[in-house]
Every structure is written in C-alpha cells, then in structure tokens.
Amino acid sequence: MVRAKEKYVKKLMAGGYDKWLDITHTEQTQSVMNQLGGERPFKVWRNGMFIVQAFSTPNAWGAIRMMIRWLDARPDHDWSLFQRIKNDLFGPEAVALEVYPAESNKQDVANMYWLWVLPPNADCPIEVKGKK
C-alpha cells in the first residue's frame, strides 16, 4: 500500500518537478548574484518547482552547503522531495544533514532550507545504516 505522503509527492512531481537546469552562468543569475553581494554559490540549479544553490563554504567536515527554495517561496518542508533533490544533484549515495541551530545562530529570513552534503565516502557517525 502506498502511503498518503508518497501519493502527495508523486502528485507534486507530476505537476512540475522536471529536469534540473544548470543556470549558474546565465545572465539573470549573474545579475542577481551581483546585486546581492556576499558569498556566491558555485552552482545554481532550477526546475519547475525549486531553485537550489550550492556553496563551498569552508567547514571542518568538508561539506557542501545546499540551499533549497520553492520557486513560489512557500514555507513547505518536505523530506521526500528534499531527499529526491539531494539524489538528483549529488547522487543517491550522498549523505546530507539538516541542522537546527542554537537560537543565537538562527538565520530565518526567508523560506529557504539548508542541507550540508558530506564529501563522497565520508562516514557519517549519526547516519542510521541498514537495509530498507
């Protein structure tokens, strides 16, 4: 039996989750990045539902910081879709973490969601491992 959540995700994906386009070097992306200033993503993707930016901010784990945002900026956090995005852009065996920071470090300025993608073959000590 298919769970209700899986049906919901399939319906969403049928309504716009299509092929990812690398828009990193488009004129529009470059213009927006120039206006915003600050750290620049090394890669920007877009499909019919999401925009995703990848940053190589130095950190102790060597993880890539990935920002996910719905194109319509809705405040919808869907684990199944974020797992699919991670798989599509970094591969199904990539491990990504989501962090809920200390209140003093919280930066909640928009409906953006952040994942940290670990380097290939990194051993994540908190990952639940085993067969499906």
- Broad structural category: alpha+beta
What's the end-to-end separation, in Å?
16 Å
Shape: globular
Rounded mean pLDDT score: 87
The secondary-structure element order is: HEHEEEHEE
Number of domains: 1
Bin the strand percentage: 15-25%
What's the assembly state of these chains? Answer: single chain
Unreliable spans: none
- The main sheet orders its strands as 1-2-3-4-6-5
Number of strands: 6
Our Rg estimate from Cα atoms comes to 16 Å
- Give the count of helical stretches: 3
Helix content: 25-40%
Biggest sheet layout: 6 strands, antiparallel
Describe the structure in your own words.
The protein is of the alpha+beta class and 132 residues long. It is 25% helix and 20% strand. The protein has one domain. The chain has a six-stranded antiparallel sheet.
SSE layout and pairings?
Elements: H1 4-14, E1 21-22, H2 27-36, E2 43-46, E3 50-55, E4 64-70, H3 79-90, E5 96-97, E6 113-117
Antiparallel strand pairs: 1-2, 2-3, 3-4, 4-6, 5-6
